[in-house]
């Protein structure tokens, strides 16, 4: 994989957090009286930044996996293994969902760092819908999670958008596996060409970076309260080159920028 981001996350998931750094003598009030460190307008020393009223330094840790090698093992922290994890998403409870690309699986990491395989079977490419390990994916690269815990997957090499319920039941939300195209429509009548990124807003609209079509697609609920494989309609936004997506919470600003062509 040519992407430097992909190489950096080849076999592990990294977390960038912050912690108070320095001492009382080197950072003024940082330390025992850290709340006064930069809340009062005092500048932090070199290498530190003001975060929530304190002088802090970045702290990079490995949440799960190990840089030493690929694999598919479930487990806690460094015991678990991935194979070129690509897309990640976080739910409201702090669970992390991972598109484990070369394993063709979707993984889940709890806040405690416990890794399980939510759906798919390692190394078993396919497009079968089903429950948990009975489902199949083909090099998924993007994931998003809504407020109800449903996970949406850009199943890249199948050219489909998949949905996984909190119980692990996988369905094909849109597109037909193996049929590349750019057709708008409902459910399997719509076609994608290697969708890459996916995001969902608070209203249930799903946005797709349809990479090989160079378009951004929008999936809207067809009617209030109705969500399902045949209850979605599509609208394509011709914005030039498609890129991986991330939305502000609620998606309002992103939708406004879509309408204005990102001007």
Protein described:
With 263 residues, the protein is mainly β. It is 5% helix and 36% strand. The protein contains two helices and 17 strands. It has helices at residues 4-8, 252-259; strands spanning 12-20, 49-51, 54-65, 75-76, 85-90, 96-100, 105-109, 114-119, 130-131, 142-145, 151-155, 160-164, 169-174, 195-200, 206-210, 215-221, 232-237. It has a five-stranded antiparallel β-sheet with strand order 4-8-7-6-5, with no helix packed on it. It has a five-stranded antiparallel β-sheet with strand order 9-13-12-11-10, with no helix packed on it. The longest helix has 8 residues, at 252-259. It is globular. 37% of the residues are buried.
Show the helix and strand layout.
Elements: H1 4-8, E1 12-20, E2 49-51, E3 54-65, E4 75-76, E5 85-90, E6 96-100, E7 105-109, E8 114-119, E9 130-131, E10 142-145, E11 151-155, E12 160-164, E13 169-174, E14 195-200, E15 206-210, E16 215-221, E17 232-237, H2 252-259
Antiparallel strand pairs: 1-3, 2-3, 4-8, 5-6, 6-7, 7-8, 9-13, 10-11, 11-12, 12-13, 14-15, 15-16, 16-17
List keywords for this structure.
globular; single chain; mainly beta; 263 residues; 5-stranded antiparallel beta sheet; 5% helix; disordered C terminus; 36% strand; disordered N terminus; 2 helices
